[in-house]
Amino acid sequence: MMIDKSKIQKEAFYILNDLNDLSYESYICGGAIRDILLGKEIKDFDITTSATPEEVMDIFKGKYSVIPTGIDHGTVTVMVNKTPIEVTTFRNDGEYSDGRHPDSVEFIRNVKEDVNRRDFTINGLLYNGHDIIDHVGGLYDLNNKKIRAIGNADDRFRDDALRMMRCIRFSCQLGFNIVKSTIQSIERNAELITNVSQERIHDELIKILMSDKPSKGIGLLAKTNLLKYVLPELQSCVGFDQHNKYHRKNVFDHILKVLESTPNIMK
Questions:
Q1: What's the pLDDT score for residue 66?
Q2: Which has fewest Cβ within 10 Å: 91, 170, 181, 252?
């Protein structure tokens, strides 16, 4: 698969090229590469690099506005022509005692180790300005329309339990299937979603409902045991017989059918 360079903001290339010219290993990373390969519109570009946050700030100081937006976790934002580009140092994460942020961060020089802490293979692709670098089988899963957690799925979801809902959301938005091992991990770890703030859960739920397959998403929430924590009112409808000769479906399946037939007026 080839990258269409015209789909990448020139501002991202400015940052990438400057870092590479100074011998810092650097890549455009994350969902942007996935979406370019899928022919989707991309709004945000992130860069991962071997340069430390302090080195990034020194490199671009005076040339662009540089904001230490998440410097403790290795992220600074470089403003290029009013376009924000997030630049994050390769890192290893410590324990996630709050289920969202690592208790400690170690900056490293090995990009493969950095990719291995990320969520899903299709989001683990890297682009150095010339070639796509794939350490986790992301291209295979992208070609086969699969969503798979990187490495041990239980570890990925324990690091950040919201990834379980993100997994379902990607399935709805992209029309991909979640592999069995990742589905089973969500089922095992569903209760961890109670550690996530209502605001973050709300945002993911809205994205599921606004996707092309909202009924699929709600169905997956039920299948993976997340529904009873996310929408407990709807959980009671699962399998509930309407005892009405005019309704062949149970209440939950009837709701999914209505949701499937409801037009998305926001598109």
A1: 96
A2: 181
Q: In the chain, which residues fall in CATH 1.10.3090.10? A: 152-267
Q: Which residues of 68-105 are buried (b: 16+ CB within 10 A; e: fewer)?
A: eeeeeebbbbbebeebebbbbbbbebeebeebeebeeb
CATH for 1-144 is 3.30.460.10
Q: Please, which residues have CB within 8 angstroms of residue 72's CB and are 6 or more apart in sequence?
A: 105
pLDDT in tens, 210-220: 998 889 999 99
Domain with CATH 3.30.460.10 in the chain: 1-144
pLDDT value of residue 48:
98
The CATH superfamily assigned to 152-267 is cca-adding enzyme, domain 2 (1.10.3090.10)
**24/232: higher pLDDT:** 24
